[in-house]
C-alpha cells in the first residue's frame, strides 16, 4: 500500500503547471483526477496521456455552488485528499473552500500579498518593482488571500514586458509547485 496522498488538480487552460506536477510525481503524492471547467482545455491532454482520469464540464448555465458541488462529488468519488489549483480560473464558492480547508493550494504569479487577481506582471512592471515572482498559498474564501507556504523571486529587467516576465516567472512556478505540493501532502 502506498503512502502517497491522492491529489486532484483543477485546471482551466493550457496545463503547463499540471504537466510539471505530473512529471514530478514523487513519494508524497499521486494525481488521481484532473478536473476542468473548460471541456476542451488543452491541459486535459496531459492528464489523458498520463492515464489520469479526467472530469471536464462547462460551468456555464450553473450557479457557482452548483458547479462546485459537481467538482466536489468527483473529488470525493476519487478519494482525493488534497487539491491543487493550476490555472483554474474560477472563484470557488465558500462552501467548497470550507470543505477542503487546509488541503487545497493554488499557485499565483506574484509575490503575494502583492498583486492579487489578474495582470500581475504588468502591474509589477508599472509599479517599478525590482522583483516579481510566484507564490503557493493555501486557498481560503478571499481571492489570493490564504497563507503563503512558498515563494520564488524573479528580477524584473529594464527591458521586461509582461510576456517576457511571465515566461521567466513560469519557469520558477514549475520548480516551486511540485515541491510545495509534496510538502503539503506530507503534512496530511
UniProtKB/TrEMBL annotation:
KW Transferase (keyword) present: yes
Pathway involvement of the protein, from the record: Purine metabolism; IMP biosynthesis via de novo pathway; N(2)-formyl-N(1)-(5-phospho-D-ribosyl)glycinamide from N(1)-(5-phospho-D-ribosyl)glycinamide (10-formyl THF route): step 1/1
Enzyme class: transferase
Annotated catalysed reactions: N(1)-(5-phospho-beta-D-ribosyl)glycinamide + (6R)-10-formyltetrahydrofolate = N(2)-formyl-N(1)-(5-phospho-beta-D-ribosyl)glycinamide + (6S)-5,6,7,8-tetrahydrofolate + H(+)
InterPro entries xrefs: Formyl_transf_N, Formyl_transf_N_sf, GART
Binding annotation for (6R)-10-formyltetrahydrofolate: 64, 89-92, 106
Entry's Gene Ontology molecular function annotations: phosphoribosylglycinamide formyltransferase activity
Pfam family, one: Formyl_trans_N
Annotated site residues (Raises pKa of active site His) in this chain: 144
Binding-site residues, N(1)-(5-phospho-beta-D-ribosyl)glycinamide: 15-17
Keywords annotated in UniProt: Purine biosynthesis, Transferase
EC numbers: 2.1.2.2
Keyword presence, Membrane: no
Active site positions: 108
Domain of life: Bacteria
Location of the Formyl transferase N-terminal domain: 6-181
HAMAP family: PurN
Functional description taken from the UniProt entry: Catalyzes the transfer of a formyl group from 10-formyltetrahydrofolate to 5-phospho-ribosyl-glycinamide (GAR), producing 5-phospho-ribosyl-N-formylglycinamide (FGAR) and tetrahydrofolate.
Family: Belongs to the GART family.
Name used for this protein in its record: Phosphoribosylglycinamide formyltransferase
Organism annotation: Sphingomonas oryzagri
Amino acid at each position: 500500500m502506498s503512502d502517497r496522498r491522492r491529489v486532484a488538480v483543477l485546471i482551466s487552460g493550457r496545463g503547463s503547471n499540471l504537466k510539471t506536477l505530473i512529471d514530478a510525481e514523487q513519494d508524497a503524492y499521486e494525481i488521481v483526477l484532473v478536473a476542468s471547467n473548460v471541456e476542451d482545455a488543452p491541459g486535459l491532454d496531459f492528464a489523458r496521456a498520463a492515464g489520469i482520469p479526467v472530469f471536464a464540464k462547462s460551468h456555464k448555465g450553473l450557479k457557482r455552488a452548483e458547479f462546485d458541488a459537481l467538482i466536489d462529488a468527483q473529488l470525493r468519488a476519487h478519494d482525493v485528499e488534497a487539491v491543487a489549483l493550476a490555472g483554474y480560473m474560477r472563484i470557488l464558492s465558500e462552501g467548497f473552500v470550507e470543505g477542503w480547508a487546509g488541503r487545497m493550494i493554488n499557485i499565483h504569479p506574484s509575490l503575494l500579498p502583492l498583486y492579487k487577481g489578474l495582470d500581475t506582471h504588468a502591474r509589477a512592471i508599472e509599479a517599478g518593482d525590482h522583483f516579481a515572482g510566484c507564490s503557493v498559498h493555501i486557498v481560503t474564501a478571499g481571492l489570493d488571500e490564504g497563507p503563503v507556504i512558498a515563494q520564488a523571486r524573479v528580477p524584473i529587467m529594464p527591458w521586461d514586458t509582461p510576456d517576457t516576465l511571465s515566461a521567466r516567472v513560469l519557469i520558477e512556478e514549475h520548480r516551486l509547485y511540485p515541491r510545495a505540493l509534496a510538502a503539503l501532502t506530507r503534512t496530511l
